[in-house]
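Protein in question kept underneath.
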Amino acid sequence: MIKKSTYIRSFTPAQRRQLEKIAAEENIKTVTGILFFTLEQYGEQKSEIERLKRIISYKQKKIEKLQQ
């Protein structure tokens, strides 16, 4: 269970549940740990999304070229 600190009070109930879910899944005990974990994951996910977009674009161009 996440203790209510000053910065936690501003989260919505849905955001709080998401933080608690992450804490349970990753076995993280502190809110600070959860926030650092999510920031780290955000960067990794963003770069992975960009990589997948490039792959999709490449495949679409290849398909268009084959159709001509």
